[in-house]
């Protein structure tokens, strides 16, 4: 009796492995693109003021998003009755937070910025409890507490406790993470029926115009002083980080469970720390490694649904 697999079974197995390989590659692309975003911002604001840098990034990304709406035949405008939500997304998700991130990175390393922003899913959890009345389990509260203690120790170990500019930078980045956390929860509450492409396209275009015009008025940038390296960073942020990362993330949403995909927020800070330390010639201290590990592990715990742990506890 032959024990060899039938050709159709072999083809099915090959397709299965190919699908897994493609998913792994896409996951790695998202982690790399988002992990390098923070260094891109750092390079951009070397010679471009933060308001102008954020605006130019979005103006570069907008035509590509607009093309996506045409190719995918998605509506450009939010549904009727969502004008208030549209204004919040434009200002509270794109305009203000990305200015805060750019401004914060003028005083904080790109790796630390990524670590600070990795707290964003924790704020999602908190806002979900307050606005959506979702239950927070005790182990999640424990993870949040230990995680933020580790974050405080990271800030202290980096010497920012004596630097007011550094503390302001940290506050700006955390404020951006809080606003993004609130935006995700309000989107779940009021914008679940809005296409992801529609959600991004017009708000990112308007935010680009608002930030750039405000930058021209307040910052008065001298374009002759913008380095080629900063221009390259802006193009990278606009095309690869904003549009490319978005497309790949959108594809992965159809391939992976949200809980698995959410661990991108745990992986990209590690990439950002390594790349940022290399570019900025900063040694990665043992304290940073230890506290970063604790921080990311605790934030990872907060992502696990309570019913999952309960079910596993009962099984044991």
TrEMBL record:
Keyword Protease: no
Subcellular location: Membrane
GO CC annotation, single: membrane
SUPFAM superfamilies xrefs: Multidrug resistance efflux transporter EmrE
EamA domain segment(s): 24-155, 168-295
Record key words, sorted: Membrane, Transmembrane, Transmembrane helix
Membrane topology: Multi-pass membrane protein
TM stretches of this protein: 17-41, 53-72, 84-101, 107-131, 138-158, 164-185, 197-218, 230-252, 259-278, 290-310
Domain of life: Bacteria
InterPro entries associated with the record: AA-Vitamin_Transporters (IPR050638), EamA_dom (IPR000620), EmrE-like (IPR037185)
Protein name as annotated: Permease of the drug/metabolite transporter (DMT) superfamily
